[in-house]
């Protein structure tokens, strides 16, 4: 997708602090971390948001969640973490390329703001 920030990061056109990548997914540090550990996990393929998922995305979605769980273990988040995706303006989605936030390393309030 032209003009998609995360497609450009996937393509290596914009630098990012990448912590994991494979055939389907890329994980990199958020540029404005909201917790001591704040990683974004995205599919390489452009999917605008969770609202656009189809059954064909099942395996990439499983891989995204498994990557989140493994990174949480690797980062020492044994006390817990949050794994969230924002959809649309009310949730504050600012990049229209599906991404999950892995947040941890501090006590996370609930409900979120
Ligand atoms: P959203 O608000 O759409 O759920 O999340 C987008 C996230 O992308 C935000 O947490 C924001 O800090 C992060 N972000 C925006 N631009 C960049 C960038 O150029 N590089 C990285 N690594 N993260 C970014
Ligand atoms: Zn994209």
Can you lay out the helices and strands and say which pair or pack?
Elements: H1 5-10, E1 18-21, E2 25-29, E3 37-43, H2 58-74, E4 81-84, H3 88-91, E5 100-104
Antiparallel strand pairs: 1-2, 2-3, 3-5, 4-5
Zinc ion is lined by residues 1, 4, 6-7, 46, 97.
Summarize the structure.
The protein is an alpha+beta fold. The chain has helices spanning 5-10, 58-74, 88-91; strands spanning 18-21, 25-29, 37-43, 81-84, 100-104.
CATH fold category name:
HIT family, subunit A
Which kinds of small molecule does this entry bind, naming each only once?
A: guanosine-5'-monophosphate, zinc ion
Report the structural category. alpha+beta
H and E string: HEEEHEHE
* Fraction in helix: 10-25%
Shape: globular
Specify the biggest β-sheet. 5 strands, antiparallel
In DSSP terms (H or I, runs of 4 or more residues), the helix count works out at: 3
Estimated share of beta-strand residues? 15-25%
Fold and architecture overview:
The chain has a 5-stranded antiparallel β-sheet with strand order 1-2-3-5-4, with helices on one face. With 113 residues, it is of the alpha+beta class. A hairpin with a 3-residue loop joins strand 1 (18-21) and strand 2 (25-29). The chain is built from 3 helices and 5 strands, in the order αβββαβαβ. It has one domain: 2-Layer Sandwich (HIT family, subunit A). The protein has helices spanning 5-10, 58-74, 88-91, and strands spanning 18-21, 25-29, 37-43, 81-84, 100-104. The mean pLDDT is 97. Zinc ion binds at residues 1, 4, 6-7, 46, 97.
């Amino acid at each position: 997708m032209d003009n998609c920030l995360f497609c450009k990061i996937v393509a290596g056109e914009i630098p990012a602090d990448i912590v994991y990548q494979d055939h389907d997914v890329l994980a990199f540090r958020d540029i404005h971390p909201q917790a001591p550990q704040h990683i974004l996990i995205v599919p390489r393929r452009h999917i605008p948001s969770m609202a656009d998922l189809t059954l064909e995305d099942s395996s990439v979605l499983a891989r995204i969640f498994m990557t989140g769980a493994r990174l949480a273990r690797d980062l020492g988040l044994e006390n817990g973490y949050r794994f969230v995706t924002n959809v649309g303006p009310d949730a504050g989605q600012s990049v229209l390329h599906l991404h999950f936030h892995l947040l941890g390393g501090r006590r996370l309030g609930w409900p979120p703001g």
